[in-house]
Structure formats: structure tokens, C-alpha cells
């Protein structure tokens, strides 16, 4: 069983339509959603409809799509609808179905593309003098340090010999710690050295790509605010916060922005964002600098350093003891793991972060300066899986961090980077553990007619939510029901 | 009017399915609907209990072999 960590799309899907209308008032939000959340075909639809003066008949949209791309079309439309970007009129007898972009989204996206309006949605660059020492290198180092502190805090909660008191003493601000605890990435336990222990969600979090990690943490924060705003203490509004985050994603790295141009409530968010390392605020100026963590929030490319380079950076922090013994810089973003067909594993690293992560799914035998060795065993993989790590996560982690030499040899011989035997065996070990797969959702039953069953089940299949069906019993199972309910309603009213 | 029932779809081998059916037969508090040979529809809140019970049941019957033993032990 794997614990899926919290993702932006899940969060957005739960928001009501009124929230979307508010969000889409900001051009930066509309642009961010357009850039990050939409599949390619959906982007094409939006671009095509953006400057249409009147609604488009649904039948005309079909001409844009290859006949065999019907499924892709339906999925694109489903995504657009769930994000409240388009509205489709219900089918009626006298009028064909029409599709149009929602007003706020259309207006905001147009203005984002044209650069029109004075909405300050993309931030106001500061006109004050800028300290020349604050350049991109500085900001990268600053953001990395902040983020690594958070990761170290989570990793150290694994306990064991990898955590040192030096690392435990540093760490992120108390507010961030509280957030990690509230988000159940770690939990308080008195039986560990640091007083906290990592949870399954925490493991999944660690193995995520940095961009996903940032969003996970930010969404935890939004939820925490949502909860406390019920008791009305913080004065923060999660909708405004979300739209501020989208705005941060559209700012330029290495540029100073004016804090005066921000609303009161957004200025109140700044200290927390500093704690996460998303922005940097120099002392005694009315400026803030977005870091790379912030500016890549809404780009789909993982421009941000991956976990591997995160490790590299961590290695770099300890470079004093690495370089002193003459180990080649295992850092820069190159991989460091060698894995052999006999399941032995060698990693050229002295980063406590990377060693702790390796120890999650491998049995480590020896540690040298600058290198650890161990092997993958059935027990070590099983243990990892019981933490909620999946075989695919392990495999992709190993592949992403494979040593340069492995990549080169594999490329020369035209073989995959990881030995296929090892990859297969990791998968088999997982299968052995997971004798059944589970999927939460809804079972549809008691149809009035065969025809109704056929129509609904084939619609479910088209929009990609159908998981199982039995024509004989007249039952089907779907992962989501909202669209089907709407479809059912529109069918009823059409009659 | 069709109804939608909330729950969890389980996909597994027929052998595992028969074990689950057996576990359910004690109290009938797990399965909502027996779908087919390899699918079951069960109550959402019983998943953790079911997993624990299944694990326990399999422990008694299932002894996999280590795929590889080599001379790693001496150090």
C-alpha cells in the first residue's frame, strides 16, 4: 500500500466554483493554471477559443480532433470542466450544445498574454537600489540551505546512527516543524532521540522531486490556514494565499520586488515564505527576492534541482571532510550509485541525507570516507514497501542517481542503465507483498434499463474513470462520480 | 434511478479472493458485493483490518525463498 502525498491537482479539484471565480480574477493565476495544470490538447482548446467572440458549438470542436482521439478529447474537456475553465451548455432539444470559456478566466488569460491592464498581478519590481551581492548564485545557495534544513529535519527523524546532534540542533523554524507534524510527515514520539519519527507520508515526501515537495508543504500550509481561519485568528485567506503563490511562480529570478505593492495579508505571508526558502528579504529594505523554489512553482519542467542535486548540495556542505581525503567531488548533480547484477550497491557519497535515504531500502554493510556499500535484499525492499515506498519509486530513484560510469557503459552496449534482473526482482518483491490492489471509488447499481447502463458505463470509460464493469450484472465501478452524476442529470433533462 | 455506493474495489488472484471471502464469513462485515472471480467491493473503513488479517493468514502458509545467497556474510 502506498500513501500518495498531497498534490496540487487534488487540492484544486476540491475547491468550489466560486473560489475559482475569485482565483481567476488574477491574470497570473489564470496563466499559472494554464501552464501547469492542463494537458496539451486542453491547451490547444483554450488557445483556440480564447479570442472567439461567441460560444463554440460542441460539434465544431470535434472537427479539431482526430476521430480516434475521442478519449483524449473527453479527458481534456473533463480537466477543463473540473478546473472551471469552460462551461458546456446542457443538451436541449432545440439548441445544440455549446462550449465557452468562463468569463474571468478568459479575461485574465487574455490580459496575461497581452500584458494589458494595471493589475500588478505579476508583481511590482522594486525601484530602490539593489544590493549587488544578491545575485542568482546567492539566492540559489540560500534557497537550497533553507530547503535542505527541512529535508534534514525529516530524514533525521528516521533516527539511527546517521543523525548527528549537530544537524538536529540546526533545522528549520518551529513553525515549519509544526507544519510537518500537522501534515503527518513526521510525528512526535518519545522513544526516538530527536523526539519525532517519520511517517509513511514522510518517506514518500522524501523521494519526491523537489518541486512536488515544495507544493506538498505549501498545500499543508494552506490547509492549516483553512482550519485556523474557521476560528478566525490568522487573518489569512487561503484563496488569496494560493493566488499569491501562483503570482510568485511568475516572477523573475534574481530580481527585486517591492513589498509595498503587496496587500497587508500578503505581507503577512512573507515571514513564512522566508522560512520555506521561497523568498529572500534583505534586512531593512522594502524588497523581496523570489528564489528558484518560488519561480519554478508553476513551470511544468522540473527546472529546480532534483533530489539528486539536493544530495549533491548536502554533500557539498560537508565538502570539508570529503575533499580533505581526496575523494573526487561526488557532488555536482551527477549520480553516485553503482548497482551490480548480484544486488550489491555502492554509493560514492558522504551525505547523511543520501545515506539515510539509501538505508530506507537497502541493507548497508560498510561505510568508508566518501562511500557506502550494501545490498538490496528481499527484507530491505519489503521494509521499504511497508513504509509506503513503492518499487517504482525505488527503481526510478536508482536510475536517476546511477553513477556516470554505469550510464556510460549502458549507453555503449545499448542496454538499460539498471541491470534488468535487479529491476525485475524489486518489482517481484513488491508483488509478493501486495497480494491485492485496492482502489477507492463508487459502485453504480440499480439501473432502470440496459440502455441506461450502457450509456453511463461507456461515458465513464470515455472520460477515463471506469475501473471495472460487468455487463451481465449491470454494475460498474468508477474512481470519481461527479462527472457521471452531471451526465446523468443532463440525460434526464434532455428527455 | 441508478445508485452510487461508496467503497473500495479490490483486485486480486482468485486464491486470495477466496481467503478474503473466508475472512468475511466470520462476521460478514467486510464485503459489500462479490463482483467476479478477481474483484470484490468492500467497505472503505475495513481495508486496514482486512490487510492485517490477510497478512496474518498468509504468514502461516507462505514461505518464500531468498532468491540469492552468496558469500556476503563473512564481513
Automatic annotation (TrEMBL), chain A:
One annotated GO biological process: transcription by RNA polymerase II
GO cellular component: transcription factor TFIIH core complex; transcription factor TFIIH holo complex
Record-annotated Transcription factor Tfb2 C-terminal domain positions: 424-489
Main location: nucleus
Coiled coil: none
Keywords: DNA damage, DNA repair, Nucleus, Transcription, Transcription regulation
Keyword flag Hydrolase: no
Subcellular location: Nucleus
Top-level taxon of origin: Eukaryota
Keyword Transcription regulation part of the UniProt annotation: yes
GO MF annotations in UniProt: ATPase activator activity; double-stranded DNA binding
Residues passing through the membrane, by range: none
Function, as annotated: Component of the general transcription and DNA repair factor IIH (TFIIH) core complex which is involved in general and transcription-coupled nucleotide excision repair (NER) of damaged DNA.
Protein family: Belongs to the TFB2 family.
Protein name per the record: RNA polymerase II transcription factor B subunit 2
Protein species of origin: Immersiella caudata
Upper classification of the organism: Eukaryota, Fungi, Dikarya, Ascomycota, Pezizomycotina
TrEMBL record, chain B:
UniProt-annotated location(s): Nucleus
Any GO CC annotation of this UniProt entry: transcription factor TFIIH core complex
Pfam families assigned to the protein according to its UniProt record, in alphabetical order: Tfb5
Alphabetical UniProt keywords: DNA damage, DNA repair, Nucleus, Transcription, Transcription regulation
BP GO terms, sorted: nucleotide-excision repair, preincision complex assembly; transcription initiation at RNA polymerase II promoter
Function according to Swiss-Prot or TrEMBL: Component of the general transcription and DNA repair factor IIH (TFIIH) core complex, which is involved in general and transcription-coupled nucleotide excision repair (NER) of damaged DNA and, when complexed to TFIIK, in RNA transcription by RNA polymerase II. In NER, TFIIH acts by opening DNA around the lesion to allow the excision of the damaged oligonucleotide and its replacement by a new DNA fragment. In transcription, TFIIH has an essential role in transcription initiation.
Subunit field text: Component of the 7-subunit TFIIH core complex.
Homology family: Belongs to the TFB5 family.
Name of the featured protein: General transcription and DNA repair factor IIH subunit TFB5
UniProt organism field: Immersiella caudata
